Every structure is written in structure tokens, then in C-alpha cells.
Amino acid sequence: MTRATRAAPGDALTHFDAAGNARMVDVADKTVTHRVAVARGTIRMLPATLALVREGTAKKGDVIGVARIAAIQGAKRTADLVPLCHPLPITRVAVDFDVDEAASAVHCTATVECDGKTGVEMEALTAVQIGLLTVYDMCKAVDRGMVIGNVRLLEKHGGKSGSYVAPAGSP
Q1: pLDDT > 60? residue 142
Q2: How far apart are CA 27 and CA 142, in angstroms?
Q3: 137: annotated active-site residue
Q4: Catalytic residue among 26, 115, 137, 143
Q5: Is the pLDDT of residue 8 over 80?
Q6: Which of 2, 38, 56, 171 meets the CB 3.0–4.6 Å disulfide criterion with 154?
Q7: Are 45 and 139 in contact (CB under 8 A)?
Q8: pTM, two decimal places
């Protein structure tokens, strides 16, 4: 879809056959193109927890460094975690974390690329989730009230459906 709206009634869900059974989408006839997806999410925490993350003094070590490696691994293992995803020949995963003092939060942005027959949206979304879950895991001893949220696709490029860019200011 190139539009920034939800699927309209009557649009087919591609992961179901005519009888309503779950299936892996057949991509055999699709053209190999360069695919890129960017996703982002946030984990909110107490200011004292954020200070531990920012300073790298959490009991378990460098939270951001470990979370970055976990996010990259998550992107690579998406097909093992999401049952109907195709294993993809990922060519690049970049993960950035931004400490947001004003919101007492850490934002994670993942960019995933491949040359393939299907997109890397799920890999980018998985990378963000796994990165943020790793931050939670490493900091939960001091702050069990952390909240992960606003995980979403920001943009995707390549393939038959073309590009999608989330509208500015959308949640």
C-alpha cells in the first residue's frame, strides 16, 4: 500500500487462503528489489533509571551497547519468531538509541535493508521490540514500571507496493 491509511474493507489479507487458513505468502513470482524499512519505538522509565542507562553504570553493564546487539540479532531471527515471515538475506541492520531527558525515555530506531522478494518491515519492527525489551531486562531490577510503546513503521521502500512514509505527527 502506498497510502497512509488502514486497509479498506474487502482488501485481501495475504496470509490467509480462500478457505481462511493461515499460509505463508508465495513470493516466487515477485521481482528482487532493494528493500528498506525503518521502525521506531520508545521505553519510558524513571529519571534515575535513565541516568543509569545514559551513564553506562547499570549493574548489568552497558545497556545501550547490549540492546543494540540484541536488536540486530532480533532482526536476523525474525523468521524464527514470527511464524509466517520469510527468512530474508538481510544486507544491513542499523540500530540507534536516543536518550530523551525531557520525556525520561529512550527511543530506538532500526533500519533494515535487503535485496529480496519481500520487505523487511517485520525485521525492523522486531529489532526495535527486542532492543527495547533488552533495555527493560537490563534495568528491571531498579525500575519494573518501565513502559514500552509507540512501536511503529516509519517508512518502507522497494517492492511492488512502492514506498510508505508515516504521516508527520502521527502516533
Answers
A1: yes
A2: 46
A3: yes
A4: 137
A5: no
A6: 38
A7: yes
A8: 0.88
